Amino acid sequence: MEQLPILRDLAIISIVGVLVVLVLGRVRLPVVAGLLLAGAFIGPTGFGLLSDAHRIQSLAEIGVVLLLFGIGLEFSLERLRQIAKTVTIGGSLQVGLTILASVLCARLAGQTYARGILFGFLFALSSTALVLRTLAERGEVDAPHGRFIVGVLIFQDLCVVPMVLVIPILAGKSGGDPAHDLLLALGKAALLVLVTVVVARSLVPRFFALVDRVRSRELFLMAVLGICLATAFLTSLAGLSLALGAFLAGILLAGSEYAHRAIGDVLPLRHAFTSLFFVSLGMLLDAHVLLERPLSVGLYLAAFVVGKGFIATLSALSMRFPARVAWLAGVGLAQFGEFGFVLATLAERNELITPSEDRALLAAGVLSMIITPLAMHLAPRVRAGEKILKPLERLLGARGIDEPMPEHSALSEHVIIVGYGVAGKMLARALAETSVPYLVLELNAETVRAAREAGEPAYYADVTSPEALASARVEHAAALVLLINDPEATRRAVAAAKQSAPKIPVLVRAHYIAADRALAELGAEEVVFEELEAGLEMIARVLRRRGIPRNVIIERVNVARRESKGLFIRKQTLQRPTLATLPELGELKVETFLVRHGSFACSKSPLDLDLRRKTGASLVAIRRDGSLCEDVTATAPFRENDVLYLVGKLVAIESAVRLLDEGD
């Protein structure tokens, strides 16, 4: 039987890739860095296990398409509109400043404007596939720096078309009127993208409805891949990158009811082909040029990592992002882009750069890609970059909350809400309706502006900064509630809050129970885990649909919650200290109930309700008119606005609350 060379290549890539990633995993280094290094080892200039990289690169292109398609599926047009300002302003600043800096450096070195603009193109583009994969692995796509990076990457991909068209013009080899050719090509590209969007929006839902009726998983997967690849191909005809077309296809499908199913079907293929892409990038590293031209490679690498990173940081600061966000954004964008390889080849063909310059540039580019996952892994823990940026942050007016408004300058016993997304808005509304004072701290300037227009006490602030917490009067606050999507920022915020106000209760929303140990060691009193609460809610909804009685549902949810405590490494702190110190009373809870006008308990006495016998809960105290009364008279009726203190097991407490509110 004839052997297929591609099978041998894939076998070598798989085995070497797994071994390298396992070794790097022992020291907790990112998977992407391992795949890039594996490609460097097995490539033509490494150990030479693969002599022909072109076969792998063809499959790798499919990996980029599937990666960007999957990320687009997790996006939506609404989320894209939310970062529109970052795409236009942030992207323009990053690309424009990079090209300007390159031109200035070229002129100082005695080079022509054409070469300066060319190198500006090459340095302006970052690796969409690499950075988005790393952000997704770290769960930081929705973090402030993640949103900025995604917006800039989208703008960079949009710039690819004019860059490709301008390179022959820079070389003086374009036929006809250059301006006319450029405008005509851009017009065709815009028209094709518009047609793609309109057709996809009108026909894709109907197409998938027909496919879904067949009830075939294989047919559905083929339909998803067909839409993805067809859209990418159509946009490539307009000169746009395949990656941008695939991303656009994912966004268009994200608004339909088939998005989640598509994600589940494409995910395994996406991971496999994307791994090939990163290995193929590593294979481009020319080890010989590192020995032949180490100075040139070092200068190019410094330009990518330091120069380009600083410009990206400056762009983020100009958009009023605080130092920490700008620092992480600069690190995330400081590398060569995969489409830069295409531009470099085109520039060499048009004699704008020499072959030796091209080799040195590509070697530095691959090294910058290897460094990026490591840098993004370490950057959140390195505070030196933020401290260096602080003066520049103040100069550009990117500081957060400096002085609260007069009515907030003497707040006490207030709640500080960090993050004004869905959960933050729900909490703010609940606090407002119960007359509890609060402040909102948020890193999205547009969100802060909209909240202030709505009358909310919102401030633009970086909660990891002790100065911002001091301005929010954290030492006088009743609680700090963290509802942000950046895990590292959450941990640093807890540490900063406990350093500024050791006694303040800190409540945290976290995605996974695995984060519990670190948050507990930092001082978080209570953590709400999304995966746990979602699981408990799913239990209740499934049992309700099956017609299980409500009291049985409550019992099963409570059992699941108690059993879940075994997943927690930290000591539970939900009980009152006086009960938690006694293990035999660990199941008892202390809860309160507000007697309102219309409550069943209003105007009734404890004797009338027979609370202990009917529910198992005990009434231990009443707060009336601001005073706590522990001597409860059995025949004295409850009044409106009384606060009742109940003790008992969770099931008994819930039964008592229902009795007090609704009756038997």
UniProtKB/TrEMBL annotation:
Pfam families linked to this entry: Na_H_Exchanger, TrkA_N
Q: Write down the SUPFAM superfamilies for this protein, in alphabetical order.
A: NAD(P)-binding Rossmann-fold domains, TrkA C-terminal domain-like
How does this protein lie in the membrane? Multi-pass membrane protein
Q: Which UniProt keywords apply?
A: Ion transport, Membrane, Potassium, Potassium transport, Transmembrane, Transmembrane helix, Transport
Q: Does the keyword Mitochondrion apply?
A: no
Asked if the Swiss-Prot or TrEMBL record annotates the protein with the keyword Membrane, the reply is yes
Predominant subcellular localization, coarse grouping:
membrane
Q: Which Gene3D superfamilies match?
A: 1.20.1530.20, NAD(P)-binding Rossmann-like Domain, Regulator of K+ conductance, C-terminal domain
Instruction: Describe the location of the RCK N-terminal domain by residue ranges.
Output: 412-529
Q: What does the UniProt entry say about where the protein is found?
A: Membrane
Q: Which InterPro entries match?
A: Cation/H_exchanger_TM, Na+/solute_symporter_sf, NAD(P)-bd_dom_sf, RCK_C, RCK_C_sf, RCK_N
Q: Which residues form the RCK C-terminal domain?
A: 577-662
What residue ranges are annotated as transmembrane? 6-24, 31-50, 56-75, 87-110, 116-136, 148-170, 182-204, 216-234, 271-291, 297-318, 325-347, 359-379
Family stated for the protein in its record: Belongs to the monovalent cation:proton antiporter 2 (CPA2) transporter (TC 2.A.37) family.
* Name this protein carries in UniProt: Cation:proton antiporter
Its source organism is: Polyangium mundeleinium
